[in-house]
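Honest question from a wet-lab person: if I give you the sequences of every part of a complex, can you actually get the arrangement of the whole thing, not just the pieces? Trying it with mine:
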Amino acid sequence: MNEIGELCILLSLGISIYSFIVPILGVKKKKGELIASAENSIFTILGLISISSFILIYAFLIRDFSVEYVSSYSNRDLSTFYTISAFWAGQKGSLLFWTWLLSIFGAVVVIQNRKKNRELMPYVLSTISLTLCLFLALMVFVARPFGLIYPPEDGHGLNPMLQNPGMVFHPPTLYIGYVGFTIPFAFAMASLLTGQLGDVWIKTTRRWTIFSWFFLGMGNLLGAWWAYRVLGWGGYWAWDPVENASFMPWLTGTAYLHSVMIQERRGMLKVWNMVLIVMTFCLTIFGTFLTRSGIVQSVHSFGESTVGYYFLAFLIVTIIFSSYLIISKLSLLKSNNELDSIVSRESSFLFNNLILVGAAFATFWGTMFPVISETIRGEKITVGPPFFNQVNIPIGLALLLLAGICPLISWKRASINNLKRNFLTPFLVSIICGIALIPIGIGHIFAWFSFTISIFVLTTILMEFHRSAKTRRETTGEGFVKALITLFRKNKRRYGGYIIHIGVVLMYIGITGTSYNIEKEATLKNGESMSIGNYKLIYRGLNYKEPVPTKAEVIATMDVEKNGKIIVTALPKKDFYKTSEEPISRVYNLSGLKEDLYIILAGFPIPFQKDSPATFKIHVNPLVKWLWIGGIVLGIGTFIAMLPDWKEKK
Amino acid sequence: MIKILDCGLRIADFKKLIAHCSLLILLLSGSASAVTIDEKYKPLYEKVSDKFMCLCGCGSTIKTCPMEKCGFAVPFKEEMVGRIQMGETEEQIINYFVGKHGQQILSAPTKKGFNLIAWITPFAAIVVVGLLMKKIIDKWTTKGHIHEEEIKRIEKEGFVSGDKYKRILKKELEEFE
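Yes, you can. This is the full assembly:
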């Protein structure tokens, strides 16, 4: 069986080399059958990689520990759910999973473009195939998923920290985002190679871009959610190099999503859009390089490996080739129009791009500065969360402000009337609310700005909904709600975008809440209590459970009082796994819209008894829930924006 | 076993169980106890512990390291608490640990010397690119204004004011006819 899996990968490599070369030959020799053959070969690769993937999953399910990868990431006691997720838990499996996703996306692109974009398709196929070649070559020569060993009695098992639903969905979501950006990049390359530099490639890949951007964002958010629930330090984002690596392409992808609107509408920023999509794709490869090279220390990395350096080589080749193509086609990438005024939507989008790319650069700079410092001065330094927070907070606030301005400012030139109509009321509302926030204790200056700007952005969007629905009601006689629904149905992209902005604002509110976190640590005897914020926590002893043979749980019982009433009995616990030396804290989180009460069982004496004392770390984290709610709203907005418009259907 | 433990364990029972249960051995080795510090020193402890990076590879600061029995963070915290309780200032503590572990122990680069580049570059890049962008936008919009002024002038002076254009127009009209 395993040999078949390995053979499928080898065959796929051969076919992907074929589907890289043949479409270009087809164009040169003007032979359509060669291009058709290359298109079909993508389906063959998909079939072969699917077989390989199923064989590896099957090896996991039957506990075939003769496969080194299966032995490293599973054991007999691992549940089926987590056994399947072990497929992408390590370096080799994740390479196979990545290849599988890319072959699926490649096949979808071929199906979507059977009757359109025929001139672009050969180059699209070649770009996708070349990327496939990289991953397949790595699996053939460097990191073999089906490498065999003498089978041990039992496997090493999956890291207990990864045995969490958040961690099951976080990597694939992120991978979908990473891999998805290959498609717009492939179309960009194709349009450069063919000289078809109009809007076709942008319109064709619009949904692919939103799709990839959404999954990359959600992957990051799921990772944050997992960190919050599992790591037990009370936070969700640590600015780890690998977290940064997936954040950077998301930022440049966001910039691209905005700037393509200017190209579609005004025929401007053609070079910039090319640069942005190349940058986004390169950052996905750079992220892969960071994760797999061990060049930076990260809790996420797969450890030191030569795999990363193949990605670095691919990255360098991609940058050189893309730059050459863009420079050689500069004359064809000239804008059809020029800016009419600095006070216009085009300008505001340009500033939005500046800030987004600036944030990506700041993150890149902070991530790589230790390497730069060591290279230049020979001294190791660390760039940790305090740096990223200090640098990115002002940049983030500027971005939030632009999220309110960009969608409503007029194209070409905003008149005083336009500015007054769209921004005067939100400005006044936000200033009044901002002033009202001061007496209730918004002490942190950045937090105050964040809340005030959030109110401004929300007001601009809600006013736009109200104004548009009112206008429609007046012209058609529809009811307000029906008018609003019709507006959404008729222009899903625009209104989906507004919903996404609302989601982003909610996420900002959630993040800003961090400024008001309270944290306390205390060792309590049975019956003793401690107070934090509006809560009183009374410790009621420890319990021991062994739900499965490989796991033991030590559970603390705490009564949580608020306003003199017991509102809940909290059960923070610590899990001990046979396969891991490190116990895992299972946080008890009482989550509300106002705040989270986050209880960690930090320690207890050994041997313990039911009434032994225990140490707790308690956090009161205001507004965190809004971060997750914002993520859901962002998802809804993306879904609306991706639905086909009536106009397009016609 | 669950039943026994639920009722409370005696040391003798525990020893017996350890012989049979590898999980309990893990439990013994895996339990953690918090660093204890006098309440009056806590604010300084909270502040300073966030200024140091845990070097266990977790990517967190000493304050937020999630590993319960981290081989780096736990002894570091104990040493730090000792120094705080001895009455050392924030600066003294930072200097001591930088001397011991080098600059890499700091969670953010210092704002002096070469490290200042780390702080300035992101903002400098945004400002420089922003100014460049402003210049380009100004150039574009000025061009736009020149076009508008030209149109106004032509409208005012009549469509073709120059001899050159008159000749071209006359020639083209003749050819057209």
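Two things worth pointing out. Chain B touches chain A through 64 residues (CB under 8 Å). Confidence is low (pLDDT under 50) at residues 1-33 of chain B.
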